[in-house]
Design the sequence.
């Protein structure tokens, strides 16, 4: 503010030949109190923006009907004035900086530009994330009438502040930055959802969130392991759907349910073995290989289950009670109203987190993901670990498909389709690098919970599936930019 004031004193001196002294003094006093940009166009733009914001505030306020008309008008006027002052202040700062820049030497300009680039490089992800959130809020407000509420506006402002806090504070963490930001975002989503949606923290809703998170978490086990090696597995949704209809088909054919369940898991592992061998032989082609394998497996399963039936891709039969209890919303664990699938996921998560960090197998996996050449010199078999990770991915995908059968009570080949996107999203949002060597399943758990709480929030405010996909995409972009790493040097020292 002082800079802006000093600048206007200088400008007033330059214009003293054309303006009477008394008026000049008044101009200086006004400039000290109310900064005004030099450009009239900028001034009118600021006025227009302030009026637009005030109009939006009036519309939302009267639409809600919570406050009195006098309060709405008062708050609207105050908001417009504050925004007008802020915009003008920013404009005068840029005016002052322009005057300073003209007087700078070349060395000073280079130094200032370098500092600006460093500041942008350090804060660009935060800026992009906050701008993306602003764009999203404006799109939702403009497109969905039910979204236009004071509660959602407050929730948006709170989320922006929390994001700012998370990004700034996370810089003090030498490691675990992604986990810190993920936990902050998760906490923010829970708080905002509780504030905006009645009954969000009720026992049935929490149970539903954890159950669907368990399905996604189990399906994401293999994707996490493969990503740690620098690969991808796009066959997961197809294996989920194939296991779903294959299990019910076997049970309907008279195969004992436990035997059928184990056989489906073995088949999932076999698909993973095929993916691992082929993607290892065709280095750099894991995405295409696994996608092709997935299509082939899904098609073959539909052909086999449709023999003698007119309903390809759908199998009808009775789901055994023990499987329904595992995954149904009303399932019980030791007499408690907790679906056992949640407990299964909890056990898997503990085993994965401890196993990756505390065992030689886990440390070797990180070594391979970081530098394959150096790992080979240590005697670590790249083929063995690569194939093993894909086998595990296939087994857990088949397990997810089997559990989903218990949840739905019916089989459908397309039941795994949502997991093509969400398993990758959970890994990326959690902070595991898709280039390998960095991250872990604990990070994926955070990503899974963020996605599931966000999904529940979006459903709670009435958004449809396409909006959910759009928002997930906007969420992933800054996360990839934040956690992305430079390509590893695959040295063969």
Sequence:
């Amino acid at each position: 503010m002082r800079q802006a004031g000093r600048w206007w004193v200088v400008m007033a001196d330059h214009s003293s030949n054309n303006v009477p002294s008394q008026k000049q003094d008044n101009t200086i006093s006004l400039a000290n109190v109310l900064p005004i940009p030099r450009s009239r166009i900028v001034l009118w733009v600021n006025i227009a923006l302030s009026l637009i914001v005030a109009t939006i505030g009036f519309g939302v306020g009267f639409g809600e009907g919570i406050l009195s008309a006098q309060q709405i008008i008062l708050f609207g006027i105050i908001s417009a004035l504050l925004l007008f002052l802020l915009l003008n202040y920013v404009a005068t700062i840029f005016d002052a900086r322009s005057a300073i820049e003209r007087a700078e030497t070349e060395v000073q300009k280079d130094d200032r530009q370098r500092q600006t680039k460093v500041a942008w490089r350090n804060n660009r992800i935060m800026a992009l994330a906050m701008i993306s959130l602003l764009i999203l809020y404006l799109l939702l407000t403009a497109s969905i009438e039910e979204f236009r509420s004071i509660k959602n506006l407050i929730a948006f402002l709170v989320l922006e502040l929390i994001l700012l806090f998370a990004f700034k504070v996370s810089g003090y963490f030498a490691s675990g930055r992604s986990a810190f930001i993920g936990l902050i975002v998760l906490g923010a989503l829970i708080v905002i959802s509780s504030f905006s949606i009645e009954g969000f923290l009720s026992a049935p809703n929490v149970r539903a969130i954890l159950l669907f998170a368990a399905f996604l978490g189990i399906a994401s086990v293999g994707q996490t392991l493969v990503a740690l090696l620098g690969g991808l597995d796009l066959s997961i949704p197809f294996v989920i759907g194939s296991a779903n209809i294959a299990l019910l088909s076997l049970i309907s054919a008279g195969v004992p349910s436990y035997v059928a369940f184990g056989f489906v898991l073995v088949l999932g592992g076999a698909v993973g073995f095929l993916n691992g061998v082929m993607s290892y032989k065709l280095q750099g082609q894991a995405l295409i290989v696994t996608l092709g394998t997935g299509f082939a497996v899904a098609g073959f399963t539909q052909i086999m289950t449709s023999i003698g039936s007119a309903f390809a891709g759908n199998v009808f039969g009775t789901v055994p009670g023990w499987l329904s209890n595992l995954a149904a919303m009303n399932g019980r664990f030791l007499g408690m109203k907790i679906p056992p699938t949640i407990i299964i996921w909890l056990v898997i998560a503990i085993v994965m987190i401890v196993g990756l960090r505390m065992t030689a197998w886990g440390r070797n996996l990180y070594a391979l993901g970081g530098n394959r050449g150096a790992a080979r010199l240590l005697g670590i078999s790249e083929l063995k670990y690569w194939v093993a990770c894909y086998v595990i991915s296939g087994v857990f995908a088949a397990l997810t498909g089997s559990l989903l059968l218990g949840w739905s009570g019916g089989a459908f080949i397309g039941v795994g389709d949502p997991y093509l996107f969400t398993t990758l999203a959970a890994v990326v949002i959690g902070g595991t690098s898709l280039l390998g060597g960095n991250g872990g399943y604990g990070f994926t758990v955070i990503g899974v919970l963020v996605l599931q709480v966000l999904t529940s929030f979006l459903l709670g405010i009435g958004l449809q599936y396409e909006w959910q996909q759009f928002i997930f995409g906007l969420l992933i972009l800054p996360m990839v930019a934040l956690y992305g790493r430079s390509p590893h040097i695959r040295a063969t020292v």
Q: What stands out?
A: The two ends are 59 Å apart (CA to CA). The chain is about 75% helix and 0% strand. The chain has a mean pLDDT of 77. The chain has two domains: 1-103, 200-483.
